[in-house]
Design the sequence.
DNA sequence: TAATATAGTATGTTTTGCCTAACAATGCAA
DNA sequence: TTGCATTGTTAGGCAAAACATACTATATTA
């Protein structure tokens, strides 16, 4: 029992939570209108999502009030953001894709990959970033890296 | 104008096409029942999907008959299979994830990534597989590899 | 304080993808 | 060749996620 998992969020609710996190980080609070703009979705859709997130205990939501994350929501949002960041970094820094495409791809891929994969990918990025040479195969270097750094 | 693109398939239609390709490769023909089993959906759902794929000109479909791919469908299925294979290989051979998780992750991620990303990823796998040593950074080696092999 | 602009909500519809249950076709076996 | 099991289709529904339109609440400001 490594972690208590929040009953899994749908891809779209993850997007909403991510947007709320980002807006709150930038503007101190998140307003419904801004969420709608950021996700290019109607205000009506946002209301529905906010209610869903609230029911799951991830945000503080009261009609006509600003939105903020609960503790649980902050944790969950952190996970989501980390996933996004790792993927974007991989696409950009490792594969060398242009930033625009890297970001888009990260957005679309992030909902498909679980903790284990993302964790491993993160390690791989570290590995690939740090490591610069050596006489053995990539695979064995990476395996070794995982063991020693893990 | 490098390619005429089939109006984009939904994730689920891609899955159906992939399953049809695999079944046809294995059994010579694809039957509705087998598709349903492979994708773990009801037979009724398969009928709906077959109609959709047929309307897009990707399969030959007639009620109560076996299913086969059109030329267009074969091309499209090839793309999808390649994408899947590349991802699965990356997760398994590069990240070193267990085969089971690698396959699952590939299934879920494959719908999120476009040609450009998959192409680049494929090159990266080649690179990482072939390359065993050298004195320069991974990034520059890969960039060089892309230029020379590109 | 009343008018108006802005923000939020309710309602009803659409699309997509799946389901179950009932019905139809096919084909094998007695 | 009749009869039953298997396979395929149809019909009817449900749920998620989005939208547009219309209405309500709040805030601003004249």
Sequence:
């Amino acid at each position: 029992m490594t972690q208590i998992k929040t009953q899994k969020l749908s891809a779209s609710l993850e997007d909403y939570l991510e947007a709320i996190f980002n807006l709150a980080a930038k503007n101190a609070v998140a307003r419904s209108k801004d969420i709608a703009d950021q996700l290019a979705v109607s205000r009506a859709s946002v209301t529905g999502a906010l209610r869903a997130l609230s029911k799951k205990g991830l945000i503080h939501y009261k009609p006509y009030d600003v939105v903020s994350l609960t503790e649980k929501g902050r944790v969950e949002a952190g996970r989501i953001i980390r996933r996004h960041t790792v993927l974007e970094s991989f696409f950009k820094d490792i594969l060398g894709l242009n930033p625009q495409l890297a970001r888009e791809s990260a957005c679309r891929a992030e909902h498909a990959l679980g903790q284990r994969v993302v964790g491993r990918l993160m390690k791989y990025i570290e590995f690939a970033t740090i490591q610069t040479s050596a006489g053995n195969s990539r695979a064995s270097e990476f395996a070794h890296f995982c063991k020693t750094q893990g």
Q: What stands out?
A: Chain A touches chain B at residues 91, 93-97, 101, 105, 108-109, 111-114, 116-117, 120-121, 124, 128-129, 131-139, 142-143, 146 (CB under 8 Å). The longest helix of chain A spans residues 71-94. Residues 10, 12, 41-42, 44-45, 48-49, 63-64 of chain A lie near DNA strand D (CB under 10 Å from a C1').
